[in-house]
Specification:
alpha+beta; 16 strands; 29% helix
Length: 371
């Protein structure tokens, strides 16, 4: 099996040995962001970054952590250009296996993320990290690993390593995580150890071959044309509308004037609705998928709204801003079914319930779609 992914990482390590300047990117959800690590330097991502610095002291490394808690590869495929690829990363770890559901839809959105990174012009090295719910064993790893294997990208399975050892009695659940999912400092350290073990293995493998050797054995890829997608692959070219790139018709809603300070300044660049009857209307091209991203908040009560596609109020979808979890406000992404294929679509969001007692406004973050 041709392993383009490992070859890229070996080439990157050679660059690091020669003292190049290198960008290391980390893209995923809350575990990548560093949730429940007592200090940012103790999350798995920074520990892996530190390994690169210690292992290749001649090189100059830059740390790019583009993790956002509570988000899936569906949102990831739409935000990856502005949050990660704009920095031209030379190496990326991708982590969405506990944020995605284990089904075909999220296998497709995950492929959209992987293709945007792996087929980027600068050909970065990529390593896929598959986390797991320690309390239940739930993970989308089986779907994600099929994507990784299709592109020859190496991966690290926490289900087959740390989780398995916990099940065998080496660790207790409480030693790894306080909530059944997010690692504590010790758990983040174990994740980093597994990733570093894989990187060392790749570096030390005796099967390292030069480009000339690859040509001789007929294993060389001829550009990216041979990387045909496994899925429908709608999300490699996902679009995300915010106040920065769209001007919808506003009737009560207003654009948020506060400037966004970074990718973790979540609730910015969107639109705010306050009263019943406030509405916002988008005109979109022919669609193959559509999702509305809005804030679900732990501060109750909060407004309710509906999404009306192509004027069809009978099938309008309810969007409730109250969040029933307690871990914080959520960048919620609601899928809107496309009932009929049209050359153009109208999407209207209208507030149906709001009052002076509401603790929060209705915050529309973005519209995410594929053509």
């Amino acid at each position: 099996m041709y392993e383009e992914g490992k070859l890229r990482i070996r080439k990157l390590m050679k660059r690091a040995e020669n003292g190049d300047e290198i960008n290391l990117g980390f893209f995923g959800g809350s575990i990548t962001q560093g949730s429940l690590a007592s200090d940012p330097s103790l999350c798995y991502a920074f520990r892996v970054f530190d390994w690169w610095r210690r292992t290749f002291p001649k090189a100059v490394f830059h740390f790019i952590n583009a993790g956002i808690g509570g988000t899936s590869s569906h949102f990831g495929a739409a935000r990856i250009r502005e949050d990660l690829l704009c920095y031209q990363p030379d190496f990326v770890i991708v982590d969405f296996s506990v944020n995605d559901e284990p089904n075909d839809f999220f296998m497709e959105t995950y492929e959209g993320v992987v293709r945007q990174i792996f087929l980027n012009d600068n050909e970065p090295g990529v390593l896929l990290l598959h986390n797991v719910y320690y309390d239940s064993g739930k993970t989308a790893e089986d779907q994600h690993i099929r994507i990784g294997d299709h592109y020859g990208i190496p991966h690290v399975s926490i289900r087959d390593t740390v989780y398995r050892r916990m099940r065998e009695g080496m660790y207790t659940l409480e030693e790894l995580t306080p909530d059944g999912l997010h690692p504590n400092d010790f758990g983040h350290g174990l994740l980093a150890e597994e990733i570093i073990r894989e990187l060392i293995k790749i570096r030390e493998e005796s099967s390292l071959r030069t480009d000339a050797a690859l040509r001789e054995c007929g294993c060389e890829r001829s550009g990216t044309a041979e990387y045909q997608p496994m899925t429908l692959n709608r999300f490699e070219h996902a679009n995300r509308l915010t106040i920065r790139n769209s001007a919808p018709a506003l009737a009560g809603f207003r654009a948020d004037p506060e400037e966004k300070s970074g990718h973790l300044d979540f609730f910015k660049n969107g639109w705010i609705g306050r009263k019943s009857g406030d509405s916002i209307r988008f005109i979109l091209p022919s669609l193959t998928s559509l999702a509305i991203q809005y804030r679900k908040t732990v501060r109750h009560p909060a407004p309710k709204a509906i999404c009306i596609l192509d004027g069809d109020r009978e099938h309008a979808l309810l969007m409730e801003a109250d969040f029933e979890e307690d871990w914080g406000d959520c960048l919620f992404l609601q899928i809107i079914p496309i009932r009929e294929k049209q050359s153009a679509h109208t999407v209207e969001i209208e507030i149906t319930e709001a009052s002076e007692e509401d603790a929060e406004t209705f915050y529309l973050l973005s519209v995410i779609y594929t053509e």
